[in-house]
């Protein structure tokens, strides 16, 4: 399944200074892992952010955000952000920050 390579490249550039970043094909798109923990990714043209269960309700309520649900069952702790929500670099950087913060809170794999 194809994903928005332009969005993936913007993420790569914003994660350039982070240590331990790897990329992995998953969820039908691409995911960016920090020390083995998924932080953000791209599915089609949508940003996927792993925010953790504690921040989930607060962040899914933000504009352009929604629960991640591609199997018919929402995934608690993961948020989709529609393209309009990451069109500006500052907005994308903020969402990436949520994903990085959660990934860094987990033990390295």
**Number of self-contained structural domains:** 1
Overall average residue pLDDT? 95
Rg from Cα: 12 Å
Secondary structure: helix percent: 25-40%
Strand segment tally: 6
CATH structural architecture: Alpha-Beta Complex
Low-confidence stretches: none
CATH topology: Aspartate Aminotransferase, domain 1
Q: What is the class in the CATH system?
A: Alpha Beta
Across the major sheet, the strand order is 1-2-3-4-6-5
Distance between the termini: 27 Å
How do the helices and strands follow one another from N- to C-terminus?
A: HEEEEHEEH
The coarse silhouette is: globular
Question: How would you describe the overall organization of this protein?
Answer:
The protein is built from 3 helices and 6 strands; from the N terminus they run H-E-E-E-E-H-E-E-H. It has 109 residues and is an alpha+beta fold. It has a 6-stranded antiparallel beta sheet. Strand 2 (29-34) and strand 3 form a beta hairpin. The longest helix has 16 residues, at 89-104.
């Amino acid at each position: 399944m194809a994903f928005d390579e332009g969005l993936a490249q913007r993420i790569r550039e914003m994660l350039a200074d982070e240590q331990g970043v790897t990329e992995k094909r998953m969820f039908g798109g691409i995911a960016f892992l920090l020390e083995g923990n998924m932080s953000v990714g791209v599915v089609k043209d949508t940003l996927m952010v792993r925010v953790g269960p504690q921040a989930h309700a607060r962040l899914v309520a933000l504009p352009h955000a929604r629960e991640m649900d591609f199997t018919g069952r929402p995934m608690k702790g993961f948020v989709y952000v529609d393209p309009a929500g990451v069109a500006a670099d500052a907005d994308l950087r903020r969402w990436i920050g949520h994903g990085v913060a959660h990934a860094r809170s987990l033990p390295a794999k």
